[in-house]
From TrEMBL:
Keywords attached to this entry: Cell membrane, Membrane, Transmembrane, Transmembrane helix
Species lineage: Bacteria, Pseudomonadati, Pseudomonadota, Betaproteobacteria, Burkholderiales
Protein name: Lysine transporter LysE
A GO molecular-function annotation: amino acid transmembrane transporter activity
InterPro entries: LeuE-type
Length: 210
């Protein structure tokens, strides 16, 4: 099992990553702006189901991989660090996107909103890479079942993502109006995210497997 210290650090990492621009956030916020909070929450429910599918696939795959090929941990660790550096660059690069640059979407019934949220997340490479590259940094085979630890991390990640996106959906119109009047704050937010992601990448790259 994982320690409270590890879970706290992992929760912070999940918070930083869920606040970086991505298809899930943009889709849910866009739905909330176009069709109201109810549509945004239904879309978010589909997104969360997509997280469950990603989690099960990654947990079972990582368990098998780390048991069969122990040195795969180092390869995954370096891939994870490279991926976080790429996310950091996306946040600070000139012309980088912001989370609340929402798209205009046509009105759809709840069933379609849910299914589109599910598919949007299922096909989101950011989520797949997060599970496959970031989870192994917190897995310790010597402390028990890798599968149990993966599911524990997944529950934390889904909880953090669900809570943050729910707040964003509920406050989408107000937050968007604020950001549209505060380009300086939006630029600062991007650089803070980029710095934190870069620091996480360096920490992972320089860490040793216990």
């Amino acid at each position: 099992m994982l320690t409270w210290h590890e879970l706290a650090f992992f929760s912070l990492a999940c918070l930083i990553l869920v606040l970086t621009p991505g298809p899930n956030m943009i889709y849910c916020v866009s739905r909330a702006l176009c069709q109201g909070r109810g549509a945004g929450l239904v879309s978010l429910a589909g997104v969360l189901l997509g997280f469950v599918v990603h989690l099960m696939a990654a947990s079972l795959g990582l368990t098998a991989l780390l048991m069969a090929v122990p040195f795969a941990f180092d390869a995954i660790r370096l891939m994870g660090a490279a991926y976080l550096l790429w996310l950091a660059w996306q946040a600070v690069r000139p012309g980088g996107t912001a989370p609340f640059q929402a798209r205009m979407l046509p009105a759809d019934p709840p069933r379609k909103l849910f299914s589109m949220g599910f598919v949007t997340n299922l096909l989101n490479p950011k989520v797949a890479m997060f599970y496959l590259s970031f989870f192994p940094q917190f897995l310790h085979p010597e402390n028990g079942s890798v599968l149990t630890q993966s599911l524990q991390l997944g529950a934390v990640q889904i909880g953090v993502s669900g809570a943050v996106n729910c707040l964003l959906v509920l406050g989408a119109s107000g937050i968007t109006a604020f950001l549209s009047r505060s380009e300086r704050w939006l630029r600062a937010q991007r650089y803070v995210m980029g710095t934190v992601l870069g620091a996480l990448a360096l920490r992972i790259a320089m860490s040793d497997r216990k």
